[in-house]
Amino acid sequence: MNSAASDPALIGLDWGTTSFRAALIGADGSVLETLHAPEGIMHVEGGCFEAAFERLLSPWACHRSLPVLASGMITSRNGWVETPYVSLPAGIEELANALVAHTTDTGRQIQFVTGLASEINGAPDVMRGEETQIVGAIASGAVAGCFVMPGTHSKWVEVDGGRIENFATYMTGDIFAALRDHTILKALMAEMSFQKDGFSLGVSSGLSAGCNLLHRLFHVRSLPLFNKIPAEMSADYLSGLLIGAEIAGGQTSMTGEGPVTIVGRSDLADRYEIALDIAGRESRRAENDIVARGHFVIARTAGLIT
Amino acid sequence: MNSAASDPALIGLDWGTTSFRAALIGADGSVLETLHAPEGIMHVEGGCFEAAFERLLSPWACHRSLPVLASGMITSRNGWVETPYVSLPAGIEELANALVAHTTDTGRQIQFVTGLASEINGAPDVMRGEETQIVGAIASGAVAGCFVMPGTHSKWVEVDGGRIENFATYMTGDIFAALRDHTILKALMAEMSFQKDGFSLGVSSGLSAGCNLLHRLFHVRSLPLFNKIPAEMSADYLSGLLIGAEIAGGQTSMTGEGPVTIVGRSDLADRYEIALDIAGRESRRAENDIVARGHFVIARTAGLIT
């Protein structure tokens, strides 16, 4: 029997801090099936990753002979197999050459993708998992440009010549949650539908906050106190202020021009689209399935699939 | 009997969110006795401020006939008597003219000092209590200059011609605690003695963070991860980073030059002294008892004491 384009050829794992995602990938790179479980590495009891791996992939027991590629925080110190960081610039070749092989007790071999490290003026930065998404986007044709990957720790990534040249982490989401829930601002926060006007006002303030962010944040309290904005806008004003400040920083630290590609399909990605528009920066959305695409091109370059 | 310089003439209350401080003030403005209790306005059960007032001042029952001046968050919406804000510029005269009188059920009269409000580009800022400290410093001779009042919500205050011309709140302390205890940075934080080297590195980064504070904060995690600083320095690095960013903002938003006067005698004030030195800005310490001095000069200007 000849191998068809849609025959399963690879299992790609995107195993992060809070979730496990697996894709069954065809010989042509298409995603044939997916699995999703809320078992991020922090939820794997006792660090028994092999047991979790076998259990979570049991629906695909018939595909046990396929190569497996894994990326994300599963390769960190708190994960299954800690892999070293690859330095910049890095693209598909560099990641394929740096795969770390691990054989399970049952004899299955898993290839772990390494993360990336950068250093600017002595200050290090790191990513684990995002590099696989970005090389997936590169393989889909985005050989140059700036990416933003919204999240608890947003990443800004600059690609040129098909390789990641530069990136920076912004603690925006993590800080938003801490400020909303654990400062004086908490008293104002209400569960509401998205308040676009409040968000947009916050973005404008954040974009022009310059070195005064610690002061501008106090406006989240003082504006409702003086009825300049309704209290129910406070949470989205805070969100906009932080995202605006992130965009001001990201635009300064990334040299590239042109549209920013937003990775993700979440409500958060929608907020970045609005904020980039206010900043006067064009944006577009990354394609779906760039993680699986990344796993596929790294595996193919490494000779794991033909 | 003639009144001596040291005869009690006034009771001054500095009643804030977390503490109650009272001073028995002589006819010459000297502080004769003090009382201190951890009963800030948020700890007064059921908002029974009059009962707390009578109980906390019971050691001075023999001075019931003296005028009482109160300042601080006791004049806020969550306090005893909400007073309006006075707008800028404001000095001793303006505060003396804006006192709000309140008669207790037992017939004692209390004069509440109002807070100050400012507005820059449509964004309001407020203070309650700090204005009394600053006019106390003005009465002691600081008729012009820049003040920093470190705390949960630091205040930068600019004085000219004996009046407060400008001020801005920085959420530094509140944000420090939220980031230390409620973000990914928590994992690194250890209870340690003050690590001046780590603090100083943080200050330097904060001073030059510009619009990139949300990124620089990630270095609190990445520097120890790459053994660039010992993990036990992380908390003080974070403290320095935020205080440095505050100073960069404060120096930008306040137009005055010359030394910055640091209000307070706490460990936090010591940190600001170190950080201002790194920023190349001269600093000095405010005198003790400027709150009582403020109460005294406001009361005298209002004709409550002669």
Question: Could you provide a short overview of the structure?
Answer:
Chain A is of the alpha/beta class.
SSE order and pairing:
The structure is a homodimer of 306-residue chains.
Chain A: E1 8-15, E2 20-26, E3 31-37, H1 49-56, E4 68-71, E5 85-87, E6 90-91, H2 92-97, E7 100-103, E8 109-112, E9 115-120, E10 123-127, H3 130-139, E11 145-149, E12 154-160, E13 163-170, H4 172-182, H5 196-207, H6 213-216, H7 219-225, H8 234-253, E14 260-262, H9 267-278, E15 283-285, H10 290-301
Parallel strand pairs in A: 1-4, 4-8, 5-9, 11-14, 14-15
Antiparallel strand pairs in A: 1-2, 2-3, 6-13, 7-8, 9-10, 11-12, 12-13
Helix pairs in contact in A: 3-10, 4-8, 5-8, 5-9, 8-9
Report on the structure:
The structure is a homodimer of 306-residue chains. The first copy, chain A, is an alpha/beta fold and 306 residues long. Chain A folds into two domains: 8-140 and 289-301, Nucleotidyltransferase, domain 5, CATH 3.30.420.300; 172-285, Nucleotidyltransferase, domain 5 (2-Layer Sandwich), CATH 3.30.420. Helices cover 33% and strands 25% of the residues of chain A. Chain A has ten helices and 15 strands. In chain A, the strands form three sheets. Chain A has a six-stranded mixed sheet with strand order 3-2-1-4-8-7, with helices on one face. A six-stranded mixed sheet of chain A has the order 6-13-12-11-14-15, sandwiched between helices. Chain A has a three-stranded mixed sheet with strand order 5-9-10, with no helix packed on it. In chain A, helix 4 (172-182) packs antiparallel against helix 8 (234-253), helix 5 runs parallel beside helix 8 (234-253) and helix 8 crosses helix 9. The radius of gyration of chain A is 21 Å and the shape is globular. Chain A starts with 7 loop residues before the first strand and ends in a 5-residue tail after the last helix. Chains A and B meet through strand 10, strand 13, helix 4, helix 6 and helix 7 of A and strand 9, strand 12, helix 4, helix 6 and helix 7 of B.
